[in-house]
C-alpha cells in the first residue's frame, strides 16, 4: 500500500470532524486573554494580523460549496479577492467580536468543496500562524499531526506541500511520520508539517542536510 493509500485508509477509519472541533476549541481558549496589541501582531501569513487569520478561519467554517462558488463568481475567479471578502465578513468591529464569531464555528461541519482533512490542516496550520508569533505553544496530539503530515505529503491542494518536499527524506523524531528519499530533514512532526506547508521559521527547528533546500523552497533565506 502506498503512502497516499495509507493516508486515505487512515482517514476513512478516523473521524476527522471531532479533531477539527477540538483544534478550534483549543485555539479559542489560547486566544481568550490577548491584549489589543497581541491581536495586531503580524502572523506567519505576513500580509495578515493574527486577528485577520482568525477571521479567515471563521469564514472557512461558514462557507458551504454553494456560497463558496457564488463568491468565486462574484469575484470573477479571483480566489485571493474571495478570501479577503469572506475574511472581512467575519472580522467584526473589535477583536472580542472576531473571537466570538470564531467560537460560534467550533462545532460547525460546514465547509467549502475541500476534503475534511484539508479543514483540519487549515485549523492546525493557521493556528500555528497565529500562535508562533505570540509565543503560544500547543501540545498537539501526535496522532493528529501524523495524520496531517501523511495528508500533506501527497497533496498540493490549497497549499503546495507534495512538490515542496520532492527529493527530500523527512523523518519525525517524535512520532512515526517518515516520507521520501534524498537529503535528510529531521525534527518534530509539527515542524515538518509547518515547513511542508511553506512556513520558513519552522526550518529553524529542523536538522539535516536537506534543511537548506527546504528553507529555500519555503521562501526563506
Question: Would you write up a description of this structure?
Answer:
- This protein is mainly alpha-helical.
- It folds into two domains: 121 residues, no CATH class; 76 residues, Nonspecific Lipid-transfer Protein, Chain A (2-Layer Sandwich), CATH 3.30.1050.
- It is 54% helix and 5% strand.
- Helix 1 packs across helix 9 and helix 5 packs across helix 6.
- The model has no long low-confidence stretch (mean pLDDT 89).
Features:
221 residues; mainly alpha; Nonspecific Lipid-transfer Protein, Chain A; 2 domains; three-stranded mixed sheet
* CA-based gyration radius: 17 Å
Beta-strand content:
under 5%
How many structural domains in the coordinates? 2
Quick one: how many beta strands? 3
Helix content: 40-55%
Overall outline: globular
The secondary-structure element order is: HHHHHHHHHEEEHH
SS content category: mainly alpha
Task: Order the strands across the largest sheet as they lie in space.
Answer: 2-1-3
Biggest beta sheet attributes: 3 strands, mixed
Query: Low-confidence runs (pLDDT<50, min 5 residues)?
Result: none
- Our measurement of the CA-to-CA distance between the termini, rounded to an integer number of angstroms, reads 37 Å
Mean model confidence by pLDDT: 89
| Separate helix tally | 11
List the helices and strands and how they pair.
Elements: H1 3-13, H2 17-30, H3 36-39, H4 50-60, H5 65-74, H6 79-91, H7 95-104, H8 116-134, H9 142-153, E1 169-172, E2 178-179, E3 184-187, H10 189-196, H11 211-217
Parallel strand pairs: 1-3
Antiparallel strand pairs: 1-2
Amino acid at each position: 500500500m502506498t503512502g497516499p493509500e495509507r493516508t486515505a485508509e487512515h482517514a476513512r477509519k478516523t473521524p476527522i470532524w471531532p479533531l477539527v472541533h477540538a483544534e478550534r476549541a483549543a485555539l479559542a481558549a489560547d486566544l481568550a486573554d490577548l491584549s489589543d496589541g497581541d491581536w495586531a501582531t503580524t502572523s506567519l501569513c505576513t500580509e495578515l494580523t493574527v486577528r485577520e487569520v482568525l477571521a479567515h478561519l471563521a469564514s472557512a467554517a461558514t462557507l458551504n460549496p454553494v456560497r463558496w462558488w457564488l463568491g468565486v463568481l462574484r469575484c470573477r475567479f479571483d480566489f485571493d479577492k474571495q478570501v479577503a471578502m469572506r475574511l472581512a465578513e467575519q472580522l467584526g468591529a473589535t477583536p472580542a467580536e472576531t473571537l466570538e464569531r470564531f467560537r460560534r464555528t467550533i462545532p460547525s461541519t460546514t465547509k467549502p468543496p475541500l476534503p475534511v482533512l484539508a479543514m483540519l490542516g487549515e485549523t492546525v496550520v493557521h493556528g500555528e500562524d497565529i500562535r508562533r508569533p505570540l509565543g503560544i505553544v500547543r501540545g498537539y496530539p501526535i496522532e493528529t499531526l501524523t495524520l496531517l503530515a501523511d495528508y500533506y505529503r501527497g497533496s498540493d491542494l490549497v497549499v503546495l506541500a507534495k512538490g515542496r518536499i520532492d527529493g527530500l527524506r523527512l523523518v519525525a523524531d517524535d512520532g512515526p511520520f517518515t516520507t521520501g528519499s534524498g537529503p535528510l530533514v529531521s525534527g518534530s512532526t509539527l515542524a515538518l508539517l509547518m515547513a511542508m506547508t511553506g512556513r520558513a521559521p519552522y526550518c529553524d527547528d529542523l536538522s539535516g542536510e536537506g534543511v537548506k533546500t527546504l528553507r529555500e523552497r519555503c521562501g526563506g533565506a
